Amino acid sequence: MHLIECLHQIGRPLPVLCDEPDVQRRSLALLHFLQNLKTLSPLDLNRLTDECPQDSLPQALDWQQVRTLESSGMVRFGPHGASHSILTGLDDQHLDEELSRSRQALLNGCNRPLPVYCYPNGDSDARVRQHVADHHFPFALGTGTGIYRSTDDPLALPRFGVSQRTARNPELLSWRIYRGARP
């Protein structure tokens, strides 16, 4: 089966705006479409992945590249899920497996993995946070923007997103930090 056909079959056809000549509108349509795909079941996501052409699969760092970056002293890696499943949609058994596999992969591949879990898509609830704590992660990052305060939940830490645009414009990062520090 072809990827486009698979998208139709699972009820998520490409948006009409994919043919939109306005780059901004097309980009926004694709962004919303991709965000919407994150809500699919792990089974459907795996089906879509299987239908992707081999030469178009996402490129990721290999473990040697990870260790090289770590050895620079400027980069460390923390767990973000073994399959990037949305944790709130998993039952307890699959949630525990996802957390264990993610931790084990980093313990096997990294020299000094961070003990900070980063929720895929930022999704967590009380049950997920309890499982993260049960797996001995003292901290976890959500997607809320801000500065950590001692009264905040350490398993729902705020963070700042650093996109390529922000990295090219350090004043944007300082503005985000400033905004996050305000009460």
Can you describe this structure?
- With 183 residues, this protein is mainly alpha-helical.
- The chain has two domains: 3-56, no CATH class; 77-181, no CATH class.
- The chain is built from eight helices and two strands.
- A two-stranded parallel sheet has the order 1-2.
- The protein is globular.
- It starts with a helix and ends with a helix.
- The mean pLDDT is 84.
Could you give the order of the helices and strands?
HHHHHEHEHH
Tell me the fraction of residues in β-strands, as a range: under 5%
Taking all Cα atoms into account, the compactness measure Rg is: 19 Å
The coarse silhouette is globular
Mean pLDDT: 84
Pick out the low-confidence regions: none
Helix and strand composition category = mainly alpha
Number of strands: 2
Q: What's the helix count?
A: 8
Q: In summary, what is this structure?
A:
Helix content is about 45%, strand content about 5%. It has helices spanning about 5-10, 25-35, 40-50, 65-70, 90-110, 125-135, 165-170, 170-180, and strands spanning about 115-120, 140. The radius of gyration is 19 Å and the shape is globular.
What are its keywords?
about 180 residues; mainly alpha; 2 domains; two-stranded parallel ribbon; 8 helices; 2 strands; globular
Write the layout of secondary structure elements.
Blueprint: H1 3-9, H2 23-37, H3 42-51, H4 63-71, H5 92-109, E1 116-118, H6 126-134, E2 139-141, H7 164-168, H8 170-181
Parallel strand pairs: 1-2
